[in-house]
Structure formats: C-alpha cells, structure tokens
Design brief:
alpha/beta, Rossmann fold, 2 domains, 6-stranded parallel beta sheet, 12 strands, binds uridine-5'-diphosphate
Length: about 400
C-alpha cells in the first residue's frame, strides 16, 4: 500500500506534520523541477525517489528529470566528483570540452519548466546558462564535500555556480566563499520506505540465508556502490584483522549507478581481494533491492561505512535507524551522523576500524546502547520530514531575498 503523509505522523508526531502542511501552503503556488544525472543508484536518486511524492501530496508541483550523457561525459563527471572531493585526478582540456559539449546538448534538449529549478550536483550545473533567457529561481544543490576541491575543477565550475540564486550544502564545512546565499540542509532517510521500514525477523533471516550468510554468527556489513572512495578494500583489510580475534562474516553489498563508470573495475578488485574466504560475501545487487538491503543491515551486528571521502553517507543513517552501531570514516557528513562513542565510532584507518569492531563484538551491551542512541539521533535530525520542511523553507526564503526574518501572514 502506498505510504501517505498521514503515515508519518506515527513516526514524528502530529506537530511536525502540521508545521509542514502550513509551510506548504505558502509555497505551493510554485512548481519545483529537480534535475540530476541518474534515476537510480546513489544517495541523490534515493532521496528524490521519496521526496517527490511527499511534496506532491503536499500540493507542491514537484517533478524530477535526468540529464542525458554518454560514457565519455560520465567518465569526466566521475573524475570531477573525485577531484572536488580533493582526490587527485588528471583533468585535461579535452575533458572540460566534453563537459561543455554535453551541457550544450542538454541545454538544447531539456525542457526547463519549473518556477524553481533545483539542480543537483556538478553534472547538470551548466543548465544555468538558460537563466538569462527564461529567468526563474535557480538553486544549486551540492551533495559533495567541496571544502577542499582540486582548484582546476572548482574554477571551471565556479562561473556557473555563482550565477545561481542560492547554493545548498549538506554541512557548513562544505560551503565555499561565494557571492550568493548559501543554505545548509542535511540529507535524510525515509523511515517508511522498503529500505528502512521494520521487517519481521523471519524476513531478515530469509534474506541472509538466501545470500548464504549464517544468521547465527556475527555479521559486519558495508552497503555501498563499488567505489574507491568508499574504501571496500580497506573494509576487507579491517575484517581480516578482526578475524584474528573474533569469529565473524563480512558482507560487501552494492550495485552501480548509471553515472558511475568505475564500478565494474572496483568490483573486480574487491572480488579478487575476497577470493577464497567463504565468509566474505560480495553481493552485486540489482537496482531496487531495497528490501534486501534493509534485511542485510537489520541482520548485521555492526555496519561499516569506511569511506575515505564522503558527501553525506545516507548508509550511516540507514544503519543507525535500524539500531546498529556504525563504524565510519571520519570524513564528510559521516561526522554529522556518528557522534564518536555515542552513536558509533569514527575511525581513520583499517586498524582503527578493526579495533572498534573487536570492542563491539565483545560487548553486546555497548552495541545495544549505541544503536539506541543512533536511532534517536536519526529520528531527531535525519528523517525525510525534516528534509521536506527545510526545502519548503528554502522555497519560501527565495521569495524574500535579503530578508533576515520572514514574517508570514496568518501565523
Ligand atoms: N544503495 C542502494 N543499492 C546499492 C548501494 C547503495 O540502494 O547497491 C543506496 C544506499 O542504501 C543509500 C544510497 O544508495 O541509500 C547511497 O547513498 P550514500 O549517501 O551512502 O552514498 P552515494 O552513493 O550517494 O555516494
């Protein structure tokens, strides 16, 4: 059965929902067109899939379109992505040309119809070239940690980015010196989606068994696209250290994203590193494996997100929401979600991750406590209802440029 707004009242209470409905009343005269680069795979698609129906139910005409791009374009934007995260990449003039050409093609072909154009991440950022001819309100929603970018890529993108009416970043550290207003809006998870809703223990057990995982033995799990910045090889290294002290199994599960051409190569490296160990389960999941992912996380003892660079890392909140202790790299938005020693552990190396995992595996009470704290923390900060409210407030703020306090009639 389809989830409706009313269902969220049971999770967050009626006051939160009343506030959201009231705010929607102030902005629903404007349509909101979201544009990103992939319909499936990765955090942005995950959020939009859930956000659009909720906004529509609130009466906001929200839509979602995806830019077009060929393999060469996505190879370039993946390199941009890594370089913006501060990871070394060689950026050639030819690559900049590919980006410009693809932008021109999308400018030609895309229908830009929203009153508010919500452009996600660098891939479609150049669509702002249409602003002088069509006007509208333009928001650049950057999900990447651009606090320490490769200057070559940032300087290339900056002339586009600075023409937006506003930019949105997931955390204050990500913002940059820019002549446009900047907003901080953290991403979120949907507690009622198949990825996160409660599951019967038999369902969880059934999924583990289907993948050959022993439900009676401890399980460490990382759910991620096969991407070097998610450090799956580092997770295997940690697991091998843990195994010297405790019995456990490792699950590395993930699929690809249409805009991520490196996945297949990283998957090969991971499979090679895992070979011959029957307790390492490398699972290549097809798109829309939400129930399976939910069950894999619920069936885990500890969740890993050992990223070496990260935007937000939705998988962290997804683990915390299920009452799991999460061990995460101390990077990007993972630092927003893991309060060290309270909702999980922040680590800086495979050794650090292994030490924390051994500590947790030998202390079920600590696992329970961190999981309980984590679930509460996500309820208060990282659920989709908070996110919807922030987007509505942003739409409202755009109508009151320069005003420090917005006074609403009727409140
Ligand atoms: N995910 C998924 N299937 C996969 C791998 C990941 O559905 O095979 C989901 C994951 O559960 C999370 C999102 O994709 O909801 C990934 O978001 P995150 O912010 O963790 O990382 P990103 O991929 O955006 O870098």
């Amino acid at each position: 059965m389809a989830v409706t707004l009313a269902d969220y009242e049971k999770v967050v209470g009626p006051e939160v929902m009343d506030e959201i409905r009231t705010l929607a009343g102030y902005v629903r005269h404007k349509s909101l067109q979201n544009i990103n680069s992939t319909p499936v795979g990765g955090g942005v698609a995950e959020i939009l899939t859930r956000m659009i129906p909720l906004l529509r139910e609130l009466g906001v005409d929200a839509t979602w379109d995806v830019i077009k791009g060929n393999e060469a374009f996505y190879a370039v934007t993946k390199a941009f992505h890594n370089a913006l995260h501060g990871h070394p990449e060689t950026i050639t003039p030819k690559m900049l040309e590919v980006f410009r050409e693809n932008t021109a093609m999308n400018l030609e072909e895309m229908k830009l119809e929203g009153d508010v154009l919500f452009i996600h991440d660098p891939q479609p950022a150049g669509l702002i070239d249409k602003k002088p001819t069509i006007g509208r309100q333009w928001i650049w929603r950057c999900h990447i940690d651009v606090s320490n970018p490769d200057p070559a890529v940032w300087e290339f993108l900056r002339p586009w980015v600075e023409r937006y009416d506003a930019a949105v970043f997931s955390m204050p550290d990500f913002a940059r010196e820019m002549p446009i207003p900047q907003f901080r809006i953290a991403p979120s998870i949907d507690p009622l989606s198949d990825k996160n809703r409660d599951l019967e223990p038999e369902v969880v057990r059934g999924v583990l068994e289907r993948f050959g995982i022993d439900p009676e033995r401890p399980v460490l799990t990382q759910i991620s696209r096969f991407d070097r910045l998610k450090d799956p090889l580092g997770v295997i290294e940690s697991y091998r250290m843990v195994r010297r002290h405790c019995d456990c199994q490792l699950v590395l599960a993930g699929g690809g994203a249409d805009d991520d051409p490196e996945g297949a190569e990283v998957l090969r490296e991971v499979e090679e590193a895992a070979a011959k160990d029957p307790d390492i389960h490398v699972l290549l999941l097809p798109p829309f494996s939400d129930l399976e992912i939910n069950a894999l996380v619920r069936g885990s003892t500890i969740v890993f997100q050992k990223s070496i660079r990260e935007g937000f890392g939705l998988t962290v909140s997804e683990g915390l929401w299920k009452g799991k202790p999460v061990i995460g790299g101390a990077v990007g938005g993972i630092r927003l979600q893991i309060i060290n020693g309270v909702t999980g552990f922040l680590i800086h190396s495979p050794e650090g991750a292994a030490n924390r995992a051994v500590e947790l595996l030998s202390n079920p009470e600590l696992c329970r406590k961190l999981g309980e704290n984590g679930q509460r923390y996500v309820r208060e900060n990282f659920l989709i209802t908070r996110h919807v409210k922030d987007y509505l407030l942003l739409m409202l703020a755009l109508d009151h440029p320069g005003e420090r306090v917005v006074r609403l009639a009727g409140i």
